[in-house]
Write a structure and sequence with these properties.
It is built from three helices and seven strands; from the N terminus they run ββαβββββαα. The chain is an alpha+beta fold. The chain starts with 14 loop residues before the first strand and ends with a helix. Strands 1, 2, 3, 4 and 5 form a five-stranded antiparallel β-sheet that branches. The structure holds iron/sulfur cluster (2 copies). One iron/sulfur cluster (SF4) binds near residues 25, 79 and 84.
């Protein structure tokens, strides 16, 4: 998710269509340090020598445990200032983002 222009905060880039995804997204050592600084070690899942943010099952899909919504139902990253590198690199308006936005529109 991004706070940049073009993000409609559909939240689909923080969501997976599989209800059994255990971890999203993957964390680097720097990311882990940020989450500890944010006092959110509860979000960290370790699987062997890899780590990620815990995901939660919501009916038929999974979502990042840091994803929440505001009073208007818009997606919000609850750790935005401390989000992992892979989330910082995500570009609002990229081809996949456009695809997700179209999917979200169809659900309305
Ligand atoms: S898919 Fe695009 S519009 Fe939807 S939350 Fe992510 S960046 Fe924003
Ligand atoms: S950390 Fe934030 S931006 Fe990254 S997947 Fe989770 S909710 Fe989305």
């Amino acid at each position: 998710m991004s706070e940049k222009k073009g993000c409609t905060r559909c939240g689909l880039c923080c969501t997976f269509p599989d209800p059994h995804v255990m971890v999203c997204p993957e964390l680097t050592p720097v990311d882990i340090g940020r989450l500890i600084e944010a006092k959110r070690p509860d979000l960290i899942v370790r699987l062997g020598d890899r780590s990620g943010i815990r995901s939660v099952t919501v009916t038929t899909h999974s979502k990042c445990a840091a994803l929440t919504t505001d009073k208007d139902g818009k997606a919000v990253c609850s750790i935005y200032e401390f989000r992992p590198e892979v989330c910082r690199e995500w570009e609002a308006g990229c081809a996949l983002c456009q695809h997700y936005k179209n999917l979200a529109r169809r659900k309305l």
